[in-house]
Write a structure and sequence with these properties.
The complex is a heterodimer.
Chain A (H helix, E strand, L loop, with lengths): L1 E10 L2 E11 L4 E6 L5 H8 L7 E6 L2 E2 L4 H5 L1 E4 L11 H11 L5 H10 L13 H14 L4 E5 L7 H18 L2 E5 L3 H7 L2 E6 L2 E7 H6 L2 E7 L12 E7 L2 E6 L3 H10 L2 E8 L2 H10 L3 H7 L1
Parallel strand pairs in A: 3-8, 3-9, 6-7, 7-8
Antiparallel strand pairs in A: 1-2, 1-4, 4-5, 9-10, 11-13, 11-14, 12-13
Helix pairs in contact in A: 4-5
Chain B lengths: L11 H14 L12 H8 L3 H13 L3 E4 L3 E4 L9 H20 L4 H14 L5
Antiparallel strand pairs in B: 1-2
Helix pairs in contact in B: 1-3, 2-3
Classes of the chains: A alpha/beta, B mainly alpha.
Chain lengths: 298, 127
């Protein structure tokens, strides 16, 4: 269980994180999403104990993370900007990881190195960006972490490798109840893999929820009535409304059953109800006031 | 076992529930047969095990399967499946919409009725 409570952090007067909360259940895959500069990487650097918060608490299994070797030994972290020792190849890096992480699994390492088809002899600094990401993934997963923290793990990876990466992650969550915190801009991929979602904006946690609950709570509807009554949407929480001729497009924050019940009362001639994709929820929640962005969603 | 459509607006959890229901109704998964474990299915489909767990819970709630602690999840005998009145009214609404669509397309009452009977005949499991 990763628990971040009321955390503040400022850099030279810039408030990067503001009374931020985050809760990741054991064995969960938690997706951290947010606009550029929202504070995702800063938050991750706090959860991994690299940065120290100005206020609030960050705990894993109820123990403070900062300078906590015991927790760090069981945490795997792949940063967005990778670091390798300049002259090391994969094999030498593996030896280094083995000396640091007590959970190191040589068998898993050998199997993954083969599966990803990476050279163990070539210097890692000579690898392409995508290959370096794969190398970092192999090393991290071979240390058998209880907590896996990934900052933009999949950008720069081809679809086949991405699938393979997720396969390993899901397997460890299923087999050993590994807990995963992952940040990404690839919302479609997050939607397929995560069970919980945190949406970050300007250093604040906007929404933190179970993904399916989040999705069952907000809908896009398209509706037309033969006779327009006074207010056909009474009882619905309408977040957005747009009319195109006689057809209305709405975004409502209600459960499906309630939407259907309210709309059915007025005998619609057209009525379509769609759940929103995570991408649409993200754009709507974070760019709601922006008409240009609205133009994209509809 | 089955394929998931990641581009669909239907959530993965609902897709799993629907797919397994379909397999049970078609007798591909007969009564008392064992469903794959959460771990197995999550690996095969590359889907979050928590999502599969949730789908199994929903199937259990709807009476399609039952769980024996330590042994796994099994398909319920047909008689135990309770008719969910809410789902029935939802599906009835879908049928009503389909029939309206057929009328728009210019089909007569008789032809629609013949068509519905044909569709019923296609389901060997209902005979």
């Amino acid at each position: 269980m990763i628990k971040v409570q009321n955390v503040d952090k400022s850099f030279d007067g810039f408030r990067a994180l503001q009374s931020l909360d985050l809760n990741v259940r054991k064995g969960s895959i938690y997706g951290l999403v947010g606009t550029n500069g929202a504070g995702k990487t800063t938050l991750i650097k706090h959860v991994t104990g690299i940065l120290k918060q100005d206020g609030g608490s960050i705990t894993i299994e109820d123990a403070s993370v900062y300078e906590n070797l015991e927790i760090k030994r069981r945490t795997g972290y792949i940063p967005d900007d990778l670091y390798f020792f300049a002259s090391y190849n994969l094999k030498e890096s593996a030896r280094f990881y083995r000396s640091i992480y007590p959970g190191w699994n040589e068998e898993r390492y050998a199997q993954m190195a083969k599966r990803f088809e990476l050279s163990e002899k070539r210097k890692l600094s000579k690898f392409s960006k995508g290959m370096q990401k794969q190398a970092a993934f192999i090393l991290t997963m071979s240390s058998m972490p209880d907590y896996l923290i990934l900052d933009e793990p999949i950008d720069g990876l081809d679809p086949i490798i991405r699938k393979l990466v997720w396969k390993y992650v899901v397997e460890d969550v299923a087999e050993r109840e590994m807990t995963v915190l992952v940040s990404s801009h690839n919302l479609r991929e997050m939607e397929g893999i995560c069970d919980s979602i945190g949406i970050l904006s300007k250093g604040k946690m906007m929404i933190e929820r179970d993904l399916d609950e989040l999705k069952s709570d907000i809908h896009k509807i398209q509706v037309a009535f033969r006779e327009q009554s006074q207010n056909p949407y009474e009882g619905l929480k309408v977040l957005h409304k747009e009319s195109r001729g006689t057809v209305d497009l709405l975004i409502v924050r209600n459960r499906k059953e309630i939407v259907e019940e309210v709309i059915a009362k007025n005998h619609p001639v057209i009525f379509d109800l769609l759940p929103l994709s995570l991408e649409e929820i993200f754009i709507y929640e974070l760019g709601g006031g922006d008409s240009e962005i609205e133009g994209i969603i509809f | 076992m089955f394929q998931l459509d990641l581009k669909s607006r239907t959530s993965i959890y609902e897709q799993i529930v629907d797919n397994i229901k379909e397999l049970i109704l078609a007798d591909v998964l007969p009564a008392e047969s064992k469903l794959p474990s959460v771990r197995e299915l999550s690996k095969v489909l590359t889907v979050n095990p928590n999502t599969i767990q949730k789908a199994y819970r929903e199937l259990e709630y709807q009476g399609f399967v039952y769980t024996v602690a330590g042994l796994g999840t099994f398909v319920s005998a047909a008689a135990e499946k309770e008719v969910d009145a809410k789902r029935v009214s939802e599906v009835t609404e879908e049928l009503r919409r389909g029939i309206r669509e057929l009328k728009f397309l210019g089909m007569t009452q008789e032809r629609i009725s013949v068509l519905l009977n044909e569709l019923l005949g296609e389901r060997g499991d209902l005979r």
